[in-house]
Design a protein that fits this description.
single chain; 6 helices; mainly alpha
Length: about 140
């Protein structure tokens, strides 16, 4: 799959999910925080010694689950600007994912890993922003 020097970058960037999980507890989104904590665990478990195995599939399923949960929560955004920003962030993440895959296929592993690690960071920041906006909107009602 990947040399250890590359997977270490992804292992470290996975800690963004831990930061997101802690922030969600602070915002009182405890159930979602648990999901992102599980994603953090599956991610670091996979990237500490990556392979095409069950650990990878579990991590992919957790990514899919948290993505769907995020999309559901995004529908609750009252502000059109907030909803627009969520969708721009989601689209940007998709572009990063596709680009990372293309770079991997071309054997440009370092650039592929950097694009993939940026996905971890953008998802964490984007979700922090979205859940913060949801909390702020709830406080106004």
């Amino acid at each position: 799959m990947l040399d250890q020097k590359y997977s270490n970058v992804l292992f470290c960037s996975s800690f963004a999910m831990l930061a997101l999980s802690i922030f969600l507890v602070y915002l009182d989104f405890r159930q979602v925080a648990v999901l992102y904590f599980v994603l953090f665990v599956t991610s670091i478990n996979h990237w500490k010694n990556p392979g095409y195995n069950v650990k990878r599939m579990i991590d992919i399923y957790m990514v899919m689950i948290t993505t769907v949960v995020g999309m559901v929560y995004a529908t609750g955004l009252d502000s059109e600007l907030d909803f627009y920003m969520y969708n721009v962030t989601a689209f940007y993440t998709l572009v990063l994912f596709v680009t990372s895959g293309l770079l991997f296929a071309q054997k440009d592993y370092m650039l592929s890993v950097l694009f993939h690690s940026k996905i971890h960071l953008i998802c964490a920041v984007g979700n922090c922003m979205m859940f913060y906006c949801l909390r702020q909107e709830a406080a106004l009602h």
